[in-house]
Amino acid sequence: MLDVTRPHDWLAFSAVAVCAVTGVLQAEAKRIDLFGVILIALAAGLGGGTVRDVLIARQVFWIADQRYLFVAIAAALVTVLATHWTRVPRRLFLIPDALGLALFAVVGTGIALDYGVPWFAATFLGVITGVFGGVLSDVLRNEVPLVFGGTLYATAAWAGALLYVWLQTQGLAATVAGLWAAALIFAVRLLALRYKLTLPGFGGK
């Protein structure tokens, strides 16, 4: 059963749905058939959590609970129908992508902590959960992964993961800490897009 007192239980379904939507919106500009679009949506929605679970030797979450598959596929199909009848701006995917990043970073950190991973490593597992679905879907579309695109992305996820851990050490409930952390990630990502915020580059001229 879904436990609403634990953020990684109820945020996870939202994160999967939002990231599946992102995958479809990103694939919309490509000439890809419906099955290919569904695969991209599954990669976006399930990829990061899969990598996390493999790293901590945990049963992969969508195999343990196939409702995640149903949620990802349903979200993808609804988005396909919506984009078929309505013209969608090319960059609209950046909004659900930022939301998915925020939700998954919190979910991944929470699961890692519950699984006994030390807090610092858990924050990096949160980042992996947040970014690797997008990386996989970008690779499937033969695109440079968004995480390498310049504006703050993984950094935003890590900042939120650290805040999530810190707020719990201050006595905040995991649910409340998760919401604050997700809000920080979402805000930082949108500000980075709006004002072209980047980390210093390396290499090149």
What's the order of the H and E elements?
HHHHHHHH
Subunit arrangement of the protein:
single chain
Low-confidence stretches: 1-7
How many extended strands?
0
Structural class: mainly alpha
Mean pLDDT: 90
Fraction of residues in H or I helices: over 70%
Number of helices: 8
**Number of domain modules:** 1
Distance between the termini: 55 Å
Radius of gyration computed on alpha carbons:
16 Å
Q: Tell me the overall shape.
A: globular
What share of the residues does DSSP label as strand, in percent?
A: under 5%
**In this structure, how is the largest beta sheet organized?**
none
Itemize the secondary structure elements and their pairings:
Elements: H1 7-27, H2 34-55, H3 61-64, H4 67-85, H5 94-114, H6 119-140, H7 154-169, H8 174-195
Helix pairs in contact: 1-2, 1-4, 1-5, 2-4, 2-6, 5-6, 5-7, 5-8, 6-7, 7-8
Write up this protein.
The protein has helices at 7-27, 34-55, 61-64, 67-85, 94-114, 119-140, 154-169, 174-195. Mean pLDDT is 90; it is low at 1-7. Helix 7 (154-169) runs antiparallel to helix 8. The termini are far apart. It has one domain. The relative contact order is 0.15. The chain has 205 residues and is mainly alpha-helical. The protein contains eight helices and no strands. The radius of gyration is 16 Å and the shape is globular.
